[in-house]
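Final report, closing paragraph on structural work. Over the funding period we assembled a curated collection of sequence-structure pairs, and we close with a single example.
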Amino acid sequence: MKNTATGLAFLCLLLSPLMLVASDAAQITDDTGRSVTLNTPVTRVIALYGAFNELLTALDAADCLVARTASDAEFPAIAHLPAIGTHMRPNAELIVAQKPDVVLQLAGRQEALVQAESLRALGIDVLTFTMESFEDIFRVTSVMGELVGRQEQATVLVASFRGRLAALYARCSEQKQPRARVFYEVRYPNLLAAGTCGIVNEIITAACGENVVREPKKLVRCNEETLILSDPDIYIVQQGPMNPAPPLPADRPHYRALRAVRASRVLTADEKRFARPGPRAIDAAEELSDELLAYLIRQSSQ
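Its predicted structure, as stored:
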């Protein structure tokens, strides 16, 4: 019996490091229920959505990125990396060649999910995340920190984000004027507007604005009659891939009667800052807050 007990104790001693590794393993679960188990932080990442690259760079983890999409050449920290196609049409062969530990994709569109499954079929771990709100940004930042071993940096970054957002809401609560009524143009012609679902609406709300388009969708098709009836205080024109060269609203015959156009309260928004849920969405909210609060202050003095 004594020898048996001694043998069991020795066996437990041998197994204890294995048990420790197992207990230290981290399981990352994405927003589709897929999980990846990590014994160590990943060191080779490909993000198919630009905001993920921005977040990883903000976490001082750009060195973990081994490739980028064609549209992410604008970021100096990763401009030198090989391009592996586009967000919606990545090149699987180029991705496999980089031997990533994990690929990150944006949830929401069926085509993206199909691409993710195709990469999984090649033996690549793919994590897919939803990015539609400030809370999504905070949550995914924390997950990214765990993924690449930058938990402390993620905690600090999320605290900074939350503090800046809280300051915006505090500024707004001090105003006695009703919120500024805002229309956000996503695309023209074939007018497309931002609805109440998505980061654009959250930016407008944090900036002390009220979206005049009330449909609970991210993107809403509008006709000019509906726009004219809503008659917003502020008209925002998005510029970027979805709206590359929109004419000024003042140059559009049916828009000249809008109070925002008559009073020259037309703003331009960079699509990649206002419509991409990443670190720059906080910057966009602060920028818009300055504009809307200046308008409200002028209104209160009249």
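The two ends are 94 Å apart (CA to CA). The chain has eleven helices and twelve strands. We thank the funder for supporting this effort.
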